């Protein structure tokens, strides 16, 4: 997700744009740029780095007096964080200037067509393709900019929030939205644009939020014009009065970034699957796989290296890949792997998993594996991060910036990517019957929507949190795919509420930990119907007979476990391999509500950093 700001009107646009970008840095911060213009001059300034670097670059030049300004702070999805990939992007003629938040899935096809028609490109971005596609339509079909934009946006596939400017029409901006937010601030002197309302909060409280498939023409001398992108119908926008302050807009109204990011998971998973899981065609399309397919087919084994939550995702990946593709997988703590002199072979494939892409131990593990000639295929959330640059290839999770120290959407988007990898390997190796593969794809495609429904159950979890938030210890138990979820749930609780918690394979209880069970011990058991259900029911009985407090995560409609548990949280029925998506969500909420009840600093827990860049 990126940050977009623009202003056209009587005020000086530059301070509005720069201050606005600063407030949107929570949406992305690997590069930034600003374009300003008046009737006769125009000026573009771009940097790799944060808005502070942009301010510095501007302070070193003579800045024109402008009547329009547009700015962008980038979270890279296509193309590394680099000067030429920073926005704004200008069309070949130099007339059109665009800033864009989103992903144009069919940009490669459009780019190929534009190159055939003589267009050249400076960047690797999908956004530069979009601005030239609009220009090409305007030119060949002899349309107004608004009409050409409408036609072009009906031909792109993906998500966009754009601001478009034509230097030949210096008093006008065109904005449009599909999947990426656009807020328009109204005041008597002009129009403001932002990815949310934070950039113009002190200038106006009147805001129009564009809906999907809507575009607007902003001309200070005229009323706001909003129309439907598909049918061109003029719309009557609802003007809302802003009540939020700066901080809660950045958190989208949520109390903490962690809570916001828990809620973002359906969208983050949708973005991660977008363009890769082609459910209608029953296909998986992973561009980085095609060129390295043979390496995976020849691999003797796959070694996953990671830390913390990413290591838990790696465990889910192990179960997925071994079950679907029958390739041996080992999951290693990167901090142990890097020092224990592991045996490595040149036909090993090493998959580092990292949200930040900067975890020192994981980076060191990669370098060790590379020295042995292993092929490194990374799963990372930050484009252009140190880890992503060290890999031979890989896949990005499209979770967007994760601000809360406790990883939430990073975990579920990591297991979404690992599910795609496991299913792609199964497809290539033909280790799954076609109909089974097809069903898994369909199930995976439906997960975001099911998670949205599950989020609505969060109040039940809040009530359970009130019963156990004063505990000093907690146990989390799961079997099979839910064992990594038990570990992840325990980590969430530990790191934000400071309650000691341990995750265990449920069957391990009888080898010692069951001695811990008494009437003061809450035990969170993931007891879903698919995968060892009878076994987990007997584990629940063992806890019950020792008076443990049982909080059970069960499949909707469960009866047996419900009769024994003190509290129950129901999740949708799914194949065992996909229960981690559903079982993790209530555990994230549980740790969140307990931490809030204990007055802990949820987004910045004590002793922790978001990215552990030291040993
Ligand atoms: C998880 O909630 C923690 N923030 C931590 O365990 C984290 O997962 C770990 O430090 C790995 O970080 P990475 O994914 O950025 O490499």
- The best one-word shape is globular
Report the C-alpha radius of gyration, rounded: 26 Å
CATH class term of the largest domain: Alpha Beta
Would you tell me the structural class of the helices and strands?
A: alpha/beta
The total of beta strands comes to 27
Q: Hey, roughly how much beta strand do the residues contain?
A: 15-25%
Number of helices: 21
* Subunit organisation of the chains: single chain
End-to-end distance, in Å?
30 Å
Report on this model:
It contains 21 helices and 27 strands. The model has no long low-confidence stretch (mean pLDDT about 95). By secondary structure, it is α/β, with parallel strands linked by helices. The chain folds into 3 domains: about 5-250, Aminohydrolase, N-terminal nucleophile (Ntn) domain (Glutamine Phosphoribosylpyrophosphate, subunit 1, domain 1), CATH 3.60.20; about 250-455, Glucose-6-phosphate isomerase like protein, domain 1 (Rossmann fold), CATH 3.40.50; about 455-600, Rossmann fold, CATH 3.40.50.10490. Helices cover about 40% and strands about 25% of the residues. The strands form 5 sheets. Strands 3-2-4-1-10-9-11-15 form an 8-stranded antiparallel beta sheet, with helices on one face. Strands 5-6-7-8-12-13-14 form a 7-stranded antiparallel beta sheet. The chain has a 5-stranded parallel beta sheet with strand order 19-18-20-21-22, with helices on both faces. A hairpin with a 6-residue loop joins strand 7 and strand 8. The longest helix has 22 residues, at about 435-455. 2-deoxy-2-amino glucitol-6-phosphate (AGP) binds next to helix 11.
């Amino acid at each position: 997700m990126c940050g977009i700001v623009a202003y056209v009107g009587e005020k000086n646009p530059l301070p509005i744009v720069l201050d606005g970008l600063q407030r949107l840095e929570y949406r992305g911060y690997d590069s930034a740029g600003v374009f300003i213009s008046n009737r006769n001059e125009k000026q573009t300034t771009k940097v790799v780095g944060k808005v502070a670097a942009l301010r510095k670059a501007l302070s070193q030049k003579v800045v024109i007096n402008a009547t329009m300004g547009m700015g962008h702070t980038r979270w890279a999805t296509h193309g590394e964080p680099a000067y030429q990939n920073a926005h704004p992007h200008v069309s070949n003629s130099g007339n059109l200037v665009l800033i864009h938040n989103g992903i144009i899935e069919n940009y490669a096809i459009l780019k190929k067509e534009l190159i055939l028609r003589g267009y050249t490109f400076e960047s690797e971005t999908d956004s530069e393709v979009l601005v030239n596609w609009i220009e090409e339509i305007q030119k060949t079909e002899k349309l107004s900019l608004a009409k050409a934009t409408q036609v072009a946006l009906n031909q792109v596939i993906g998500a966009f929030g754009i601001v478009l400017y034509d230097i030949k029409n210096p008093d006008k901006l065109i904005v449009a939205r599909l999947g990426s937010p656009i807020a328009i601030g109204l005041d008597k002197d002009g129009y403001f644009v932002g990815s949310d309302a934070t950039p113009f909060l002190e200038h106006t409280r009147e805001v129009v939020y564009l809906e999907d498939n809507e575009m607007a023409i902003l001309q200070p001398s005229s009323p706001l014009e909003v129309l439907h992108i598909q049918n061109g119908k003029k719309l009557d926008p609802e003007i809302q009065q802003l009540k939020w302050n700066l901080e809660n807009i950045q958190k989208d109204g949520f109390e903490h970034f962690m809570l916001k990011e828990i809620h973002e998971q359906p969208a983050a998973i949708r973005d991660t699957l977008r363009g890769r899981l082609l459910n209608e065609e029953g296909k998986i399309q992973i561009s980085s796989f095609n060129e390295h397919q043979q390496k995976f087919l020849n691999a003797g084994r796959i070694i996953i290296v990671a830390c913390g939550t990413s290591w838990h995702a790696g465990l889910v990946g192990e179960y997925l890949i071994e079950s679907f593709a029958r390739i041996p997988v080992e999951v290693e703590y990167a901090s142990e792997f890097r020092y224990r002199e592991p045996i490595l072979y040149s036909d090993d494939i090493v998959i580092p998993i990292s949200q930040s892409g900067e975890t020192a131990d994981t980076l060191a593990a990669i370098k060790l594996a590379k020295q042995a000639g292993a092929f490194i295929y990374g799963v990372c959330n930050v484009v252009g991060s140190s880890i992503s640059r060290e890999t031979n290839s890989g896949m990005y999770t499209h979770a967007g910036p994760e601000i809360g120290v406790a990883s939430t959407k990073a975990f579920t988007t990591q297991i979404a990517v690992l599910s795609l990898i496991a299913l792609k390997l199964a497809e290539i190796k033909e280790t799954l019957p076609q109909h089974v593969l097809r069903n898994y794809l369909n199930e995976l495609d439906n997960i975001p929507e099911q998670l949205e429904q599950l989020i609505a159950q969060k109040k039940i979890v809040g009530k359970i949190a009130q019963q156990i938030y004063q505990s000093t210890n907690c146990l989390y138990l799961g079997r099979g795919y839910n064992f990594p979820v038990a570990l992840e749930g325990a980590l969430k609780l530990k790191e934000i509420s400071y309650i000691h918690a341990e995750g265990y394979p449920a069957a391990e209880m009888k080898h010692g930990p069951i001695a811990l069970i008494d009437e003061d011990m809450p035990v969170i058991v993931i007891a879903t119907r698919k995968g060892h259900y009878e076994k987990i029911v007997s584990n629940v009985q063992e806890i019950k007979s020792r008076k443990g407090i049982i909080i059970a995560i069960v499949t909707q409609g469960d009866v047996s476990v419900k009769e024994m548990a003190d509290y129950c949280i129901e999740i949708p029925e799914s194949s065992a391999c996909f229960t981690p998506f559903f079982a993790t969500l209530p555990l994230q909420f549980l740790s969140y509500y307990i931490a809030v009840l204990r007055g802990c600093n949820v987004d910045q827990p004590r002793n922790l950093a978001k990215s552990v860049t030291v040993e």
